[in-house]
Amino acid sequence: MDKIWKTLFVCLITSLVFAQQKPNVIYIYADDMGYGELGSYGQQKIKTPHLDKIAKEGMKFTQHYASAPVCAPSRCMLMTGKNSGHSYIRGNYELGGFEDQNEGGQMPLPEGTFTIAKLMKQAGYTTGAIGKWGLGMHNTTGDPNKQGFDYFYGYLCQKQAHNFYPTHLWENGKWDTLNNPYIQVHKPLAKDAPDIAFDYFKGSAYSVTKMAEKTVEFIKENRKKPFFLYLPYTGPHVSLQAPDEAIREYLGQFDEKPYRGEKGYSSALYPRATYAAMITYMDKQVGEIMKLLKELGLDKNTIVMFSSDNGATFDAGGADINFFNSVAGLRGRKQDLYEGGIRVPFIARWPGKIPSGKVNNHISAQYDLMATLSEITGVKAWDNDGISFLPTLLGNDNKQKEHEYLYFEFPEKGGQVAVRFGDWKGVKSNMKKNKNASWEIYNLKTDEKETTDVASDNPELAKKFEAILKKEHQPSHIRDWEFIAPKFSEKE
Q1: Which among 26, 163, 240, 345 is most buried, taking Cβ atoms within 10 Å?
Q2: What is the pTM for the complete model shown?
Q3: How far is residue 369 from each of residues 67, 101, 291, 300, 316, measured CA to CA in Å?
Protein backbone atom coordinates (compact mmCIF):
# COMPACT_ATOMS: atom_id res chain seq x y z
CA MET A 1 0.00 0.00 0.00
CA ASP A 2 2.87 2.37 0.84
CA LYS A 3 4.27 1.81 -2.66
CA ILE A 4 0.94 2.80 -4.22
CA TRP A 5 0.68 5.99 -2.16
CA LYS A 6 4.29 6.86 -2.97
CA THR A 7 3.62 6.39 -6.68
CA LEU A 8 0.48 8.53 -6.52
CA PHE A 9 2.40 11.24 -4.65
CA VAL A 10 5.17 11.30 -7.26
CA CYS A 11 2.59 11.48 -10.07
CA LEU A 12 0.85 14.37 -8.33
CA ILE A 13 4.08 16.32 -7.83
CA THR A 14 5.09 15.65 -11.43
CA SER A 15 1.76 16.89 -12.75
CA LEU A 16 1.97 20.05 -10.63
CA VAL A 17 5.49 20.80 -11.86
CA PHE A 18 4.37 20.20 -15.45
CA ALA A 19 1.41 22.56 -14.93
CA GLN A 20 3.74 25.26 -13.67
CA GLN A 21 5.99 24.82 -16.68
CA LYS A 22 3.23 25.27 -19.24
CA PRO A 23 3.52 28.82 -20.53
CA ASN A 24 0.54 31.10 -20.16
CA VAL A 25 -0.52 32.60 -23.48
CA ILE A 26 -2.02 36.07 -23.94
CA TYR A 27 -3.08 37.06 -27.45
CA ILE A 28 -4.05 40.74 -27.77
CA TYR A 29 -6.04 41.60 -30.89
CA ALA A 30 -6.51 45.26 -31.82
CA ASP A 31 -9.44 46.29 -33.99
CA ASP A 32 -8.65 48.04 -37.31
CA MET A 33 -5.09 48.93 -36.30
CA GLY A 34 -2.97 49.67 -39.36
CA TYR A 35 0.49 48.31 -40.07
CA GLY A 36 2.06 51.69 -39.27
CA GLU A 37 0.23 52.68 -36.09
CA LEU A 38 2.79 51.48 -33.54
CA GLY A 39 5.99 53.34 -32.81
CA SER A 40 7.92 50.13 -33.43
CA TYR A 41 6.49 50.11 -36.96
CA GLY A 42 7.40 53.72 -37.70
CA GLN A 43 4.51 55.70 -36.22
CA GLN A 44 5.60 59.29 -35.49
CA LYS A 45 2.53 60.97 -34.01
CA ILE A 46 0.85 58.40 -31.78
CA LYS A 47 2.59 57.21 -28.60
CA THR A 48 2.66 53.44 -27.94
CA PRO A 49 5.53 52.99 -25.45
CA HIS A 50 4.31 49.76 -23.84
CA LEU A 51 3.73 47.90 -27.09
CA ASP A 52 7.02 49.25 -28.39
CA LYS A 53 8.70 47.80 -25.31
CA ILE A 54 7.18 44.40 -26.07
CA ALA A 55 8.62 44.62 -29.57
CA LYS A 56 12.01 45.64 -28.17
CA GLU A 57 12.04 42.80 -25.65
CA GLY A 58 10.68 40.29 -28.13
CA MET A 59 10.26 39.81 -31.86
CA LYS A 60 8.66 42.01 -34.51
CA PHE A 61 7.26 40.43 -37.69
CA THR A 62 7.30 42.49 -40.88
CA GLN A 63 5.36 40.14 -43.18
CA HIS A 64 2.47 38.95 -41.06
CA TYR A 65 -1.06 38.90 -42.44
CA ALA A 66 -4.58 39.02 -41.09
CA SER A 67 -6.59 36.21 -42.67
CA ALA A 68 -9.25 38.62 -43.99
CA PRO A 69 -9.60 42.41 -44.37
CA VAL A 70 -12.62 42.84 -42.05
CA CYS A 71 -13.63 41.85 -38.53
CA ALA A 72 -15.81 38.74 -38.36
CA PRO A 73 -14.09 36.52 -40.94
CA SER A 74 -10.65 37.45 -39.64
CA ARG A 75 -11.70 36.44 -36.13
CA CYS A 76 -13.23 33.21 -37.37
CA MET A 77 -10.04 32.26 -39.22
CA LEU A 78 -7.90 33.11 -36.20
CA MET A 79 -10.10 30.88 -34.05
CA THR A 80 -10.25 27.95 -36.51
CA GLY A 81 -6.92 28.00 -38.37
CA LYS A 82 -8.65 28.12 -41.76
CA ASN A 83 -7.83 30.36 -44.70
CA SER A 84 -10.60 32.32 -46.39
CA GLY A 85 -11.17 29.72 -49.09
CA HIS A 86 -12.10 27.15 -46.44
CA SER A 87 -13.50 29.23 -43.59
CA TYR A 88 -17.11 28.90 -42.45
CA ILE A 89 -17.38 32.71 -42.08
CA ARG A 90 -15.98 34.82 -44.93
CA GLY A 91 -17.67 38.20 -44.57
CA ASN A 92 -19.44 40.44 -42.06
CA TYR A 93 -22.85 38.77 -42.16
CA GLU A 94 -24.90 41.08 -39.95
CA LEU A 95 -27.96 40.05 -37.96
CA GLY A 96 -30.21 42.42 -36.02
CA GLY A 97 -29.77 46.16 -35.62
CA PHE A 98 -27.88 48.75 -33.57
CA GLU A 99 -30.56 49.27 -30.94
CA ASP A 100 -30.28 47.31 -27.69
CA GLN A 101 -33.59 45.56 -28.26
CA ASN A 102 -32.50 44.50 -31.77
CA GLU A 103 -29.03 43.20 -30.89
CA GLY A 104 -28.52 40.14 -33.08
CA GLY A 105 -24.79 39.78 -33.60
CA GLN A 106 -23.16 38.21 -36.63
CA MET A 107 -23.30 34.75 -38.18
CA PRO A 108 -22.49 32.29 -35.37
CA LEU A 109 -19.80 29.66 -35.44
CA PRO A 110 -21.54 26.31 -35.86
CA GLU A 111 -21.79 23.61 -33.24
CA GLY A 112 -18.78 21.30 -33.21
CA THR A 113 -16.28 23.89 -34.45
CA PHE A 114 -12.73 23.19 -33.27
CA THR A 115 -11.24 26.45 -32.00
CA ILE A 116 -7.92 27.44 -30.51
CA ALA A 117 -9.77 27.79 -27.19
CA LYS A 118 -10.85 24.13 -27.36
CA LEU A 119 -7.29 23.14 -28.20
CA MET A 120 -6.00 25.00 -25.15
CA LYS A 121 -8.71 23.42 -22.98
CA GLN A 122 -7.52 20.00 -24.10
CA ALA A 123 -4.01 21.06 -23.08
CA GLY A 124 -5.21 21.76 -19.53
CA TYR A 125 -5.54 25.54 -19.79
CA THR A 126 -8.19 27.78 -18.30
CA THR A 127 -9.45 29.90 -21.19
CA GLY A 128 -10.78 33.44 -21.29
CA ALA A 129 -11.86 35.95 -23.93
CA ILE A 130 -12.33 39.62 -23.09
CA GLY A 131 -13.21 42.12 -25.80
CA LYS A 132 -15.18 41.95 -29.06
CA TRP A 133 -16.37 38.51 -30.16
CA GLY A 134 -18.45 38.98 -33.33
CA LEU A 135 -18.99 35.24 -33.93
CA GLY A 136 -22.45 34.73 -32.47
CA MET A 137 -24.69 35.81 -29.60
CA HIS A 138 -25.01 34.00 -26.27
CA ASN A 139 -28.20 32.25 -27.40
CA THR A 140 -26.60 30.72 -30.53
CA THR A 141 -24.07 28.01 -31.31
CA GLY A 142 -21.49 30.80 -31.58
CA ASP A 143 -21.63 31.65 -27.87
CA PRO A 144 -17.94 31.89 -26.80
CA ASN A 145 -18.73 29.75 -23.76
CA LYS A 146 -19.78 27.00 -26.19
CA GLN A 147 -16.68 27.48 -28.32
CA GLY A 148 -14.06 26.63 -25.72
CA PHE A 149 -13.89 29.70 -23.49
CA ASP A 150 -14.44 29.22 -19.78
CA TYR A 151 -14.96 32.95 -19.37
CA PHE A 152 -16.14 35.76 -21.66
CA TYR A 153 -16.64 39.46 -21.05
CA GLY A 154 -17.28 42.17 -23.61
CA TYR A 155 -19.23 42.80 -26.79
CA LEU A 156 -20.92 39.87 -28.48
CA CYS A 157 -22.17 41.99 -31.42
CA GLN A 158 -19.86 44.05 -33.62
CA LYS A 159 -22.50 46.71 -34.22
CA GLN A 160 -22.74 47.34 -30.47
CA ALA A 161 -18.95 47.77 -30.49
CA HIS A 162 -19.33 50.89 -32.64
CA ASN A 163 -20.06 52.62 -29.32
CA PHE A 164 -17.35 52.72 -26.63
CA TYR A 165 -19.95 53.86 -24.06
CA PRO A 166 -22.58 51.10 -24.40
CA THR A 167 -25.47 50.52 -22.04
CA HIS A 168 -24.17 47.01 -21.41
CA LEU A 169 -21.56 44.39 -22.06
CA TRP A 170 -21.93 40.61 -21.74
CA GLU A 171 -20.44 38.35 -19.08
CA ASN A 172 -20.80 34.61 -19.65
CA GLY A 173 -24.10 35.08 -21.45
CA LYS A 174 -25.53 37.57 -18.94
CA TRP A 175 -26.26 41.25 -19.58
CA ASP A 176 -23.92 43.47 -17.52
CA THR A 177 -25.48 46.94 -17.21
CA LEU A 178 -23.06 49.86 -17.45
CA ASN A 179 -23.56 53.39 -16.16
CA ASN A 180 -24.20 54.88 -19.61
CA PRO A 181 -27.29 56.31 -21.29
CA TYR A 182 -28.29 54.89 -24.66
CA ILE A 183 -26.38 56.67 -27.44
CA GLN A 184 -27.58 56.64 -31.04
CA VAL A 185 -23.99 56.40 -32.14
CA HIS A 186 -24.51 57.01 -35.88
CA LYS A 187 -26.61 60.14 -35.33
CA PRO A 188 -24.97 63.10 -37.15
CA LEU A 189 -24.81 66.58 -35.65
CA ALA A 190 -26.01 69.72 -37.40
CA LYS A 191 -23.34 71.89 -39.01
CA ASP A 192 -24.06 74.70 -36.55
CA ALA A 193 -24.26 72.48 -33.47
CA PRO A 194 -22.42 74.03 -30.47
CA ASP A 195 -19.42 72.34 -28.87
CA ILE A 196 -21.53 71.08 -25.99
CA ALA A 197 -23.55 68.96 -28.44
CA PHE A 198 -20.56 66.63 -28.79
CA ASP A 199 -21.05 65.58 -25.15
CA TYR A 200 -23.99 63.45 -26.33
CA PHE A 201 -21.45 60.82 -27.40
CA LYS A 202 -19.82 60.58 -23.98
CA GLY A 203 -20.67 58.29 -21.10
CA SER A 204 -19.36 57.33 -17.68
CA ALA A 205 -18.19 53.74 -18.20
CA TYR A 206 -15.66 53.36 -21.03
CA SER A 207 -15.80 49.82 -22.41
CA VAL A 208 -12.02 49.40 -22.78
CA THR A 209 -11.59 50.35 -19.12
CA LYS A 210 -14.17 47.77 -18.08
CA MET A 211 -12.53 45.10 -20.21
CA ALA A 212 -9.12 45.97 -18.78
CA GLU A 213 -10.49 45.58 -15.24
CA LYS A 214 -11.88 42.15 -16.10
CA THR A 215 -8.52 41.22 -17.62
CA VAL A 216 -6.74 41.97 -14.36
CA GLU A 217 -9.31 39.92 -12.44
CA PHE A 218 -8.93 36.94 -14.78
CA ILE A 219 -5.13 36.92 -14.51
CA LYS A 220 -5.20 37.21 -10.72
CA GLU A 221 -7.80 34.46 -10.34
CA ASN A 222 -5.90 32.06 -12.60
CA ARG A 223 -2.30 32.91 -11.70
CA LYS A 224 -1.63 29.50 -10.14
CA LYS A 225 -2.60 27.46 -13.22
CA PRO A 226 -1.87 27.77 -16.93
CA PHE A 227 -4.23 30.10 -18.75
CA PHE A 228 -4.96 31.18 -22.31
CA LEU A 229 -6.33 34.70 -22.57
CA TYR A 230 -7.67 36.13 -25.85
CA LEU A 231 -8.00 39.93 -25.68
CA PRO A 232 -9.77 41.32 -28.76
CA TYR A 233 -9.87 44.91 -27.50
CA THR A 234 -11.91 47.35 -29.63
CA GLY A 235 -9.49 50.22 -30.27
CA PRO A 236 -8.94 52.00 -32.59
CA HIS A 237 -12.09 50.93 -34.52
CA VAL A 238 -14.32 53.97 -34.95
CA SER A 239 -16.40 55.50 -33.35
CA LEU A 240 -14.00 58.18 -32.21
CA GLN A 241 -14.53 58.04 -28.45
CA ALA A 242 -12.03 58.17 -25.61
CA PRO A 243 -11.94 59.38 -22.00
CA ASP A 244 -11.40 63.13 -21.69
CA GLU A 245 -8.13 62.68 -19.80
CA ALA A 246 -6.78 60.53 -22.64
CA ILE A 247 -7.77 63.09 -25.28
CA ARG A 248 -6.15 65.93 -23.31
CA GLU A 249 -2.74 64.32 -23.83
CA TYR A 250 -3.01 65.19 -27.52
CA LEU A 251 -4.93 68.47 -27.50
CA GLY A 252 -3.09 71.22 -29.37
CA GLN A 253 -0.70 68.82 -31.11
CA PHE A 254 -2.63 68.57 -34.38
CA ASP A 255 -4.64 70.90 -36.59
CA GLU A 256 -8.24 69.94 -35.85
CA LYS A 257 -11.58 70.30 -37.57
CA PRO A 258 -14.64 68.95 -35.76
CA TYR A 259 -16.18 65.80 -37.21
CA ARG A 260 -19.97 65.93 -37.18
CA GLY A 261 -20.83 62.39 -38.22
CA GLU A 262 -21.00 63.07 -41.97
CA LYS A 263 -19.53 59.63 -42.74
CA GLY A 264 -21.19 57.63 -39.99
CA TYR A 265 -20.20 56.81 -36.41
CA SER A 266 -20.09 59.30 -33.54
CA SER A 267 -19.16 62.95 -33.90
CA ALA A 268 -15.92 64.16 -32.33
CA LEU A 269 -14.85 67.69 -31.49
CA TYR A 270 -11.16 66.76 -31.78
CA PRO A 271 -11.08 63.78 -34.17
CA ARG A 272 -7.31 63.49 -34.60
CA ALA A 273 -6.55 63.84 -30.91
CA THR A 274 -9.30 61.34 -30.10
CA TYR A 275 -8.02 58.75 -32.57
CA ALA A 276 -4.49 59.02 -31.20
CA ALA A 277 -5.85 58.88 -27.65
CA MET A 278 -7.74 55.65 -28.37
CA ILE A 279 -4.54 53.90 -29.39
CA THR A 280 -2.45 55.32 -26.56
CA TYR A 281 -5.14 54.45 -24.01
CA MET A 282 -5.21 50.85 -25.22
CA ASP A 283 -1.41 50.81 -25.07
CA LYS A 284 -1.60 51.88 -21.42
CA GLN A 285 -3.91 48.96 -20.65
CA VAL A 286 -1.35 46.63 -22.22
CA GLY A 287 1.27 48.25 -19.99
CA GLU A 288 -0.86 47.45 -16.94
CA ILE A 289 -1.08 43.81 -18.03
CA MET A 290 2.70 43.58 -18.39
CA LYS A 291 3.19 45.22 -14.98
CA LEU A 292 0.77 42.76 -13.37
CA LEU A 293 2.53 39.75 -14.90
CA LYS A 294 5.79 40.89 -13.27
CA GLU A 295 4.14 41.56 -9.91
CA LEU A 296 2.64 38.06 -9.90
CA GLY A 297 5.86 36.38 -10.99
CA LEU A 298 4.28 35.25 -14.28
CA ASP A 299 6.35 37.38 -16.60
CA LYS A 300 8.94 34.80 -17.68
CA ASN A 301 6.39 32.04 -18.15
CA THR A 302 3.91 34.01 -20.25
CA ILE A 303 3.90 34.38 -24.03
CA VAL A 304 2.40 37.74 -25.01
CA MET A 305 1.41 38.30 -28.63
CA PHE A 306 -0.14 41.38 -30.21
CA SER A 307 -1.69 41.87 -33.64
CA SER A 308 -4.68 43.43 -35.43
CA ASP A 309 -7.70 41.91 -37.15
CA ASN A 310 -7.13 43.85 -40.39
CA GLY A 311 -5.61 47.04 -41.76
CA ALA A 312 -6.53 50.59 -40.82
CA THR A 313 -10.09 51.77 -41.26
CA PHE A 314 -11.55 52.91 -44.56
CA ASP A 315 -12.68 56.49 -45.09
CA ALA A 316 -15.39 56.63 -42.44
CA GLY A 317 -16.11 57.82 -38.95
CA GLY A 318 -13.81 60.84 -38.95
CA ALA A 319 -10.57 58.83 -38.71
CA ASP A 320 -7.73 60.38 -40.71
CA ILE A 321 -5.41 57.52 -41.52
CA ASN A 322 -3.56 59.52 -44.18
CA PHE A 323 -2.60 62.11 -41.58
CA PHE A 324 -1.21 59.40 -39.29
CA ASN A 325 0.29 57.33 -42.14
CA SER A 326 -1.59 54.45 -40.58
CA VAL A 327 -0.70 51.86 -43.23
CA ALA A 328 2.95 52.99 -43.49
CA GLY A 329 2.55 53.93 -47.13
CA LEU A 330 1.13 50.57 -48.20
CA ARG A 331 -1.65 50.44 -50.74
CA GLY A 332 -5.23 49.88 -49.56
CA ARG A 333 -6.87 49.66 -46.18
CA LYS A 334 -9.64 47.74 -44.42
CA GLN A 335 -11.85 45.89 -46.96
CA ASP A 336 -8.95 45.63 -49.44
CA LEU A 337 -6.73 42.66 -50.26
CA TYR A 338 -3.87 44.98 -51.10
CA GLU A 339 -1.14 45.07 -48.45
CA GLY A 340 -2.64 47.94 -46.47
CA GLY A 341 -5.80 45.93 -45.86
CA ILE A 342 -4.23 42.69 -44.66
CA ARG A 343 -0.59 43.20 -43.63
CA VAL A 344 -0.69 43.89 -39.89
CA PRO A 345 1.67 44.42 -36.97
CA PHE A 346 2.62 41.29 -35.05
CA ILE A 347 4.91 41.27 -32.02
CA ALA A 348 5.63 38.46 -29.56
CA ARG A 349 7.48 38.30 -26.25
CA TRP A 350 8.53 35.32 -24.11
CA PRO A 351 11.55 36.14 -21.91
CA GLY A 352 14.38 33.65 -22.25
CA LYS A 353 12.70 31.87 -25.17
CA ILE A 354 11.97 34.50 -27.85
CA PRO A 355 15.17 36.43 -28.65
CA SER A 356 14.84 40.11 -27.76
CA GLY A 357 15.05 42.93 -30.27
CA LYS A 358 14.67 40.71 -33.30
CA VAL A 359 12.98 41.71 -36.56
CA ASN A 360 11.79 38.77 -38.64
CA ASN A 361 10.64 38.63 -42.27
CA HIS A 362 8.98 35.21 -42.06
CA ILE A 363 5.81 35.24 -44.19
CA SER A 364 2.97 34.16 -41.92
CA ALA A 365 -0.76 34.55 -41.36
CA GLN A 366 -3.02 34.60 -38.35
CA TYR A 367 -4.48 31.24 -39.29
CA ASP A 368 -1.03 29.89 -38.32
CA LEU A 369 -1.82 30.48 -34.64
CA MET A 370 -3.64 27.19 -34.17
CA ALA A 371 -0.69 25.19 -35.53
CA THR A 372 1.66 27.23 -33.35
CA LEU A 373 -0.34 26.64 -30.16
CA SER A 374 -0.55 22.97 -31.10
CA GLU A 375 3.23 22.76 -31.20
CA ILE A 376 3.62 24.71 -27.96
CA THR A 377 1.20 22.49 -26.05
CA GLY A 378 1.73 19.16 -27.80
CA VAL A 379 -2.01 18.82 -28.44
CA LYS A 380 -2.91 17.75 -31.96
CA ALA A 381 -5.01 20.29 -33.84
CA TRP A 382 -7.86 19.38 -36.13
CA ASP A 383 -7.48 19.92 -39.86
CA ASN A 384 -6.23 23.46 -40.50
CA ASP A 385 -4.32 25.52 -43.06
CA GLY A 386 -1.62 26.85 -40.76
CA ILE A 387 2.09 26.25 -40.29
CA SER A 388 3.50 26.68 -36.79
CA PHE A 389 5.80 29.69 -36.50
CA LEU A 390 7.19 28.48 -33.16
CA PRO A 391 10.65 27.76 -34.67
CA THR A 392 10.80 31.39 -35.82
CA LEU A 393 9.70 32.62 -32.38
CA LEU A 394 12.46 30.60 -30.73
CA GLY A 395 15.09 31.86 -33.15
CA ASN A 396 15.37 28.55 -35.03
CA ASP A 397 14.88 29.95 -38.52
CA ASN A 398 16.67 26.99 -40.06
CA LYS A 399 13.91 24.69 -38.73
CA GLN A 400 11.02 26.91 -39.85
CA LYS A 401 8.72 25.47 -42.50
CA GLU A 402 7.52 28.01 -45.06
CA HIS A 403 4.18 28.48 -46.75
CA GLU A 404 4.28 27.77 -50.46
CA TYR A 405 1.70 30.55 -50.69
CA LEU A 406 -0.92 32.43 -48.68
CA TYR A 407 -4.45 32.53 -50.10
CA PHE A 408 -7.12 35.18 -49.52
CA GLU A 409 -10.62 35.65 -50.83
CA PHE A 410 -13.13 38.29 -49.77
CA PRO A 411 -16.73 38.49 -51.00
CA GLU A 412 -17.31 42.14 -50.13
CA LYS A 413 -16.33 45.33 -51.97
CA GLY A 414 -17.00 43.73 -55.34
CA GLY A 415 -15.42 40.33 -54.66
CA GLN A 416 -11.62 40.00 -54.38
CA VAL A 417 -8.95 37.32 -54.39
CA ALA A 418 -5.25 37.56 -53.54
CA VAL A 419 -2.29 35.18 -53.42
CA ARG A 420 1.09 35.78 -51.79
CA PHE A 421 3.66 33.52 -53.48
CA GLY A 422 7.19 34.23 -52.26
CA ASP A 423 7.93 37.83 -53.19
CA TRP A 424 5.07 37.84 -55.71
CA LYS A 425 1.52 38.99 -55.07
CA GLY A 426 -1.49 38.45 -57.30
CA VAL A 427 -4.75 40.36 -56.86
CA LYS A 428 -8.13 40.09 -58.57
CA SER A 429 -10.87 42.69 -57.98
CA ASN A 430 -14.53 43.28 -58.91
CA MET A 431 -15.12 39.60 -59.54
CA LYS A 432 -18.85 39.86 -58.89
CA LYS A 433 -19.08 41.88 -62.10
CA ASN A 434 -16.46 39.82 -63.92
CA LYS A 435 -15.58 36.43 -62.44
CA ASN A 436 -12.85 36.12 -65.10
CA ALA A 437 -11.16 39.36 -64.06
CA SER A 438 -7.48 39.57 -64.90
CA TRP A 439 -4.76 39.15 -62.32
CA GLU A 440 -2.77 42.16 -61.20
CA ILE A 441 0.75 41.04 -60.27
CA TYR A 442 3.24 42.86 -58.06
CA ASN A 443 6.80 42.11 -56.98
CA LEU A 444 6.70 42.95 -53.28
CA LYS A 445 10.47 42.77 -52.98
CA THR A 446 10.91 45.76 -55.27
CA ASP A 447 7.41 47.24 -55.12
CA GLU A 448 6.04 46.82 -51.61
CA LYS A 449 3.45 49.54 -52.20
CA GLU A 450 1.96 47.69 -55.19
CA THR A 451 2.27 50.60 -57.59
CA THR A 452 3.33 48.75 -60.76
CA ASP A 453 1.31 45.90 -62.22
CA VAL A 454 3.71 43.54 -64.01
CA ALA A 455 1.13 40.94 -65.08
CA SER A 456 1.89 41.41 -68.78
CA ASP A 457 5.49 40.34 -68.15
CA ASN A 458 4.55 37.30 -66.05
CA PRO A 459 1.85 35.21 -67.76
CA GLU A 460 3.13 32.02 -66.08
CA LEU A 461 2.58 33.55 -62.66
CA ALA A 462 -1.01 34.40 -63.59
CA LYS A 463 -1.54 30.72 -64.48
CA LYS A 464 0.02 29.73 -61.14
CA PHE A 465 -2.26 32.06 -59.20
CA GLU A 466 -5.30 30.77 -61.08
CA ALA A 467 -4.39 27.19 -60.21
CA ILE A 468 -4.02 28.14 -56.52
CA LEU A 469 -7.43 29.83 -56.59
CA LYS A 470 -9.07 26.70 -58.03
CA LYS A 471 -7.32 24.52 -55.45
CA GLU A 472 -8.09 26.63 -52.38
CA HIS A 473 -11.64 27.82 -53.00
CA GLN A 474 -14.37 25.69 -51.52
CA PRO A 475 -18.00 26.68 -52.20
CA SER A 476 -19.54 28.68 -49.39
CA HIS A 477 -22.86 27.97 -47.68
CA ILE A 478 -23.90 31.62 -48.17
CA ARG A 479 -24.98 32.86 -51.59
CA ASP A 480 -23.59 36.36 -50.96
CA TRP A 481 -20.15 34.85 -50.44
CA GLU A 482 -20.09 32.66 -53.54
CA PHE A 483 -18.58 34.95 -56.16
CA ILE A 484 -15.76 32.78 -57.54
CA ALA A 485 -17.71 29.92 -59.10
CA PRO A 486 -21.40 30.78 -58.62
CA LYS A 487 -23.96 28.27 -59.87
CA PHE A 488 -26.61 30.95 -60.18
CA SER A 489 -27.29 34.23 -61.95
CA GLU A 490 -27.09 37.49 -60.00
CA LYS A 491 -30.51 38.34 -61.48
CA GLU A 492 -32.19 35.37 -59.81
Answers
A1: 240
A2: 0.95
A3: 11, 36, 25, 21, 30
